[in-house]
# Entry
Amino acid sequence: MADGIERRVRYRILTLNSLSARGLERLPRERYEVGPEVAEPQGILVRSADMHSMQLPPSLLAVGRAGAGVNNIPVAALAKLGIPVFNAPGANANAVKELVLAGLFLAARSICSAWAFARSLSGDDAAIDEAVEAGKKKFVGFELPGRTLGVVGLGAVGVEVANSALALGMKVLGYDPQITVQRAWQLSSSVEQALSLDDLFARADVVSVHVPLNAETRGLVNEQRLKLMRKGGVILNFARAPIVDSQAVIAALDAGRLRGYVCDFPSNALKDHPRVVTLPHLGASTHEAEENCAIMVADTLREFLENGNVRHSVNYPEAVLPRIAGATRLAITNSNVPNMVGQISTCLASASLNIADLLNKSRGEYAYTLIDTDGAVSEDLLGKIRRIEGVLSARLV
# Structure
């Protein structure tokens, strides 16, 4: 029986973390072997495990991250090998948005420090009442309507935060020079475009960052930009810790220029500061978000393995080509250089194979090509295509 099952299994998926069962159910057991001990996997599913020091198996075709950030994955190294990395953009957006809004309320009303004060009270109820009346003036906050929220990064989370803040009566500034058409359609027309980051910081009472961590965004919230903010401002960071210069924030808090900092990234410098609220990386920590991320990335990985289509990749272009019944499909990753499609087409023509459909997409240094042929592609021909200079991988789907 075991041998019969093994013969039917076509794809092997290695899991580096526990993933939602609802997500793994998207990979049918009659075709997929899935688990933490799988050998020679074609796919890897990961959440938080660090893959940078991992020895990558030669069989690997794709990596799927059940979440948005991919800092734990060697994306550039995988791209050079022709291996797409997929993530789950937007799958946890609602969970993160809700936590950002919670952070906004925590900062506006000094809720955490007020709660700590209340928990420290002692004596009988009359003594507590007296202490409450004497102490509550230390926790006077501000209301949200009429205040200005600056949202840096208008991806899935940023758009939801911006739209929700409008519903709370806030004015909203947004800044994202790379906003996609899809997100622009989702963003309320009442969100005002900031002319620059400096313009946003100068006009905002609260700034919330929603950008990936890279060389351009590291230290985006820094001493110079904090000095531009109105006195009593608040910084919210539920993206990545290094996007905010912690020492600059602490200096601004100590100087009284900044009212508060709420983030999802505790550190020794931050966790005990009286005007800082640090949470233990709870952004996507809901049952719903974990399920949504696992489902999305499992579906994406399956679509790539079974049909060659690329969706939600962080290192290769979006490439979706409907299949033609009876055709043979080739999926090719290659360097984005001239005449690649021409050389591949020449190889197919030399074998008297007609191209029924073709899609070629590029992104930066890399390109991806899907080709449907009217006849079968032999292993010899596939090997010839693989030997073309610049081809990183080629497979029959």
